[in-house]
Amino acid sequence: SWPRLECLRLGTRYCWSTPPKITLRGIVTLLSSCPKLRGLGLVFDATTVDPLTDEKLGGGVCNTNITSFDVGSSPIERPLQVAVALSAILP
Fold first, then answer.
1. In the prediction, which pLDDT does 54 show?
2. In degrees, to the nearest 5, what angle opens at C-alpha 65 toward C-alphas 61 and 84?
3. Could you tell me the pTM of the whole model?
């Protein structure tokens, strides 16, 4: 946990030959561990999104401080589902 971390940028300037292993769940975990995060740059696997349920997406984790989010060349298959999931945790 890095409760004072405000900016984290990892590998968004390059195209990687290996697919990312970070998932949307990983982003939720990161946001819950870094509540003061304002800038995030992270390549993640957006090809698998958990199905929508009645439960609040992200388990209630929500970061309203993020003002920039760079996803680099993150692979994505269902953009609408990813957008809904991200808007729940990063309104």
1. 47
2. 50
3. 0.84
Q: How far apart are CA 55 and CA 10, in angstroms?
A: 30
Residue 52: which of 83, 26, 21 has the closest Cα? 83
How does 16-26 read in b/e, with b if 16+ C-beta sit within 10 Å? eeeebebbbee
> Rounded to an integer, what is the distance from CA 81 to the centroid of its chain?
13
- Is the distance from CB of 8 to CB of 37 less than 8 angstroms? yes
Query: How far apart, in whole angstroms, are the C-alpha atoms of residue 76 and residue 45?
Result: 7
CA gap 68, 16 in Å, rounded: 21
Tens digits of residue pLDDT in 23-63: 998 999 999 999 999 999 999 999 988 765 545 666 778 89
